[in-house]
Amino acid sequence: MSSVALKFPWPRKDTHDDDPYWDFFIKTPPADLTNTVTELIRNAPAGNIFPTLADIHTPEITTQHVKELARYFGAELVGIAKLETTTNPDGYPFAILCAVRAEYDPRVSPGIGGQVPVQNGLFITFVLSAWIRELGFRASVEPHLSAATLAAQAGLGTLNAEGRFVTPQFGARVYIADAICTDLPLAADG
């Protein structure tokens, strides 16, 4: 039996620098936002809070469960920040921060492909906050909070001179999803 090397008729490349369709996929915003998953998730109503509080563990173990569940949903990094009551009109004591790796910066790549980290972050925060509400605790995704500042406070990374969030694991190629504010008893990081 002879072994024959399989040859593809096209050269292998790991970049999409000369592909005009890829550039369009990454950089061109959709003509109709209803063609995006991000709008669907952002506009989905939050569910009700279960009327009976679940019997949960200590804040440290609950924090571990929250982080494991967020990682299961796709978060690369997860941190808990303590919220100040003066800047928090709803009285939430904690914010959960989830980060995903971003090959393209969603702030400068508005195309459907460039928004993949945003979609992933929205999915994670939507499902995680729904799970917390099922436990009987309040949880809401808060886009008005500075997620990058809270993520730095939680010890996930730092803000560089330009105010861009940077992590040791991914550098600046990271996207911080909107913060989940909750009254679930947690142990803050950082």
Question: What's this, in brief?
Answer:
The protein has 190 residues and is an alpha+beta fold.
The CATH topology annotation reads as NADH Oxidase
Calculate the mean pLDDT score and round it.
89
Summarize the main sheet.
5 strands, antiparallel
Q: Give the helix level as a range of percent.
A: 25-40%
User: What Rg, in angstroms, do the CA atoms define?
Assistant: 20 Å
CATH class: Alpha Beta
User: What's the tally of helices?
Assistant: 5
Rough outline? globular
Q: Strand content of the residues, in percent?
A: 15-25%
Straight-line N-to-C gap: 61 Å
Number of separate strands: 7
Low-pLDDT runs of 5+ residues are none
What does the model show?
With 190 residues, this protein is α+β, with helices and mostly antiparallel strands. The chain has a single domain, classed as NADH Oxidase (3-Layer(aba) Sandwich). Strands 1, 2, 3, 6 and 7 form a five-stranded antiparallel sheet that branches. A two-stranded antiparallel ribbon has the order 4-5. Strand 4 and strand 5 form a beta hairpin. Helix 2 packs parallel to helix 4 and helix 3 runs antiparallel to helix 4. The protein is globular, with a radius of gyration of 20 Å.
